[in-house]
DNA sequence: GCCTAATCAGGTGTAAACAA
DNA sequence: TTGTTTACACCTGATTAGGC
């Protein structure tokens, strides 16, 4: 259960070799056109194995062609649509992140002041509004 | 898959849990409607075997993904919700405990090392006595 | 009373939808 | 296609309450 694709060696996932239960068929709505009432958006939850496959492929080639995507469909059991969207989002996020990084680096090479927080992409660390700061008593 | 960069802790993507929608609680009135209706919450009592299974899994991976949780559901006979809550509580307790430990260790050697505060106040700062002091930033 | 399962409040990450 | 927004899955941390 390990094979080669585009020069990438895919090993079986360490956690699970057998994939028993949830081969997810997202069961998407056939009527894509908007019904203002039904706002139920079906969110596919990717498991670790699928993510690993996608990420490995992405690392080798962030813009897979149709053939490649087809292979991914087969490997992950995801729909082509999910594959496509995932790569779209991934490219976008990556780009955004790299831009952020560059800003961060050139902004303060080794400044340790609190002001550096304003550029911290991890929002959790920034009190948004009336958040609280933790200090030692 | 979690790393530190420029003092920012990047956590791995959240583990995935497929939770049936039916498990969502109807969000009963949090307010003054003190209706005499029974608010008895059902408390699951875990037996030794279930605890052992959960603890073993936790030791190997405190953040199981959807597949793993599904297996746990099968092995323990517990609902996905109970599994999820157990892991949440366990992580929280563990974290709290480890923080206590670290703070105990650091208590004697030195004081007033505010290093790290400017980078990560949420994580780095540890209460000296018992509990955190909150101040407005 | 202690331990902890369940709940709550608030936040994060991201798949999906949408806009350009 | 890229860039932005939205909705949802799931998190943490604090709190509440059930069993022993």
From TrEMBL, chains A, B:
The record's principal subcellular location, in a coarse class, is nucleus
What are this entry's molecular-function GO terms? cis-regulatory region sequence-specific DNA binding; DNA-binding transcription factor activity, RNA polymerase II-specific; metal ion binding
What GO cellular component term, any one, is given? nucleus
- In which compartments does the protein localize? Nucleus
DNA-binding region per Swiss-Prot/TrEMBL record: 39-98
Provide this UniProt record's keywords sorted from A to Z: DNA-binding, Homeobox, LIM domain, Metal-binding, Nucleus, Repeat, Signal, Zinc
Ranges of residues in domain Homeobox? 37-97
Q: Superkingdom of this entry's organism?
A: Eukaryota
Q: Does the keyword Electron transport apply?
A: no
- Gene Ontology BP terms: axonogenesis; neuron fate specification; positive regulation of transcription by RNA polymerase II
Q: What is this protein called?
A: Homeobox domain-containing protein
The protein's organism comes out as Cyanistes caeruleus (Eurasian blue tit)
